[in-house]
Amino acid sequence: MDKYYLKLAIHAAERSRGKCSPNPFVGAVIVKDGKIVGEGNTQPYGYDHAEMVAIKQAKDQCRGATLYVSLEPCCHYGKTPPCTDAIIQAGLARVVIGIMDPNPLVSGKGIKALKDAGIEVEYGYFEREITEQLEYYLCYIKQHRPFVIWKCAQSLDGKYAASDGSSQWISNPAARKYVHKVRSQVEVVLAGLKSVSEDDAMLNVRGLRQAKQPLRLILDPFLEISLSSRFVASAKEYPAMIMYHQADPAKCEALKAAGIELKQIKAYKDELDLQEVMAALFEMKLYSVLLETGNRLSEAFWKAGLVDKCMIFYGNMILGGDKSLFRNFDRHNIDHAIHLERIKVKRLQDNILVTGYPLL
Amino acid sequence: MDKYYLKLAIHAAERSRGKCSPNPFVGAVIVKDGKIVGEGNTQPYGYDHAEMVAIKQAKDQCRGATLYVSLEPCCHYGKTPPCTDAIIQAGLARVVIGIMDPNPLVSGKGIKALKDAGIEVEYGYFEREITEQLEYYLCYIKQHRPFVIWKCAQSLDGKYAASDGSSQWISNPAARKYVHKVRSQVEVVLAGLKSVSEDDAMLNVRGLRQAKQPLRLILDPFLEISLSSRFVASAKEYPAMIMYHQADPAKCEALKAAGIELKQIKAYKDELDLQEVMAALFEMKLYSVLLETGNRLSEAFWKAGLVDKCMIFYGNMILGGDKSLFRNFDRHNIDHAIHLERIKVKRLQDNILVTGYPLL
Question: Measured between alpha carbons, how far is A69 from B76 in angstroms, rounded to an integer?
């Protein structure tokens, strides 16, 4: 039954997806005499971790019970006290853990603290599943940068726009709604200036109830964004940031007054240094980015090796013409093609979503 | 129960798919007192139709029984005598028909013949399903040309080849095997000269047991095909035809000697008149064509409105570069995009097949 209860904990964790960063979203279940006496998932940053929620629910019944938790419990003081202390004090007899937390503040130390207190500990279950579930967090901890999801919408014949530039809408309403759901689950939605200047994009989450709004981030090397864009106009309502390289101080002031946060970043020629962009986001403890970039900025991210996951939406249309992605991200020969692993295919009415992890 | 038995007849028909042209593949079930006493599917051209197979199986039990058949029974002498006569003679009391046969030799006359003989007749069931099942035949009868399936293989970013031209293999073995299955179910596999000159393609069915071989057809306006190509070398083993416009008589003779059938076709500039190609195939009683054409010839078929069904295979790779389909089949604006109806999505391991019917 261990696997059954651990699976419940993994499912419980999903309830906190996108709602507790920079903490990982974790699930916990407490079982005593074959009965579930507590269940929890990570609360928003600064509030209880999953283990604490479950312990508070189980109360006295924790004594001698088993705790199932998807990620190794923390053993350090962060915004909250260590979970290991609470587990020990509650009198739990056994702890079954999905995966170890690679965070150097925890990594194995949580397990050791429990064992030292005489608690029976097992770990290493559903590793593939939990590793994928916590992919944002694990990338952030291990690679010291946010997890990057690249998203695009193409016609069936691989065009991101008709030859006259029109592209609204290649994706159907179901696909566009799905994108809003993904936006609500990431910390940052990133686009180039063109998204604002050509599509007047807001990049916020719309059409979902009680959705978390991501930080909307525009890369705009010379701060050319229009003050009358919807992006700027909505900056007091939805968090907005612009990363730039060089700018007129008056424009900076005007944007700040509109509620936009500005960050200066190194640049090569007319492109911001994407490694610096990532470093700045890491600094800000943001661990996931959705790229809603046009062709040119997309190419730059791919060239920099900064794509962890792809979401390719195929709209139900044939467009023809020559507006196909990646003209300048040319693999030359088929032997140098980039393959995706763990491909998933999802139908969204007559649209198709392919997700996968590029082997860069 | 009528629908249940008719569904069985529709399933029985599938056993003859691609094996009885130019006859449609039909299924029949005979039921007496709630028991199936006969079942049949169309035999190869010149042999028994589905109804006859079922009647021969049911023998005396036909008297007073009900016949379920996916397509209206024929009432004319073709290679075999009329099925309606056999139905009447067998003493069947009731006939439930899926759809009427639009073939003017039958259309309604089969039903009338049965009714005139005092048989109770009903028809018009599963029309959408049977119309799709018999799409090749129905196109052939109604439009006086073969049904045309356009097939392509693309990378996830919509490239049919890497920028150096390499394209073997964009599709994985499962997808390629699937193509061989489709080849075995059509009458004609059509390609341009390039498939032979660049890929040395055979265009036959391989890797399937007891598969019917289609007619392999190359459009080669100036009969430039190499006599040493595998296509030519295999012409005595697998049926092969070349349609051309102008040619050196000696080359014609050499190809004929190799076992290739030649057909002269009108041309505009350096392209064969595709309507003439279709007319020639109709003349030959061939009712389905699989296009395995490169970009340029594909564009010509699309421009001519000669695509009834699409099969788009997506290989698991990102190729970049500029080799994307339909540069010259440009819809200009998204409002003029071509949409597909009845989209189906099939996974072939890590490849994806999208099929649909273009609304041209």
Answer: 74
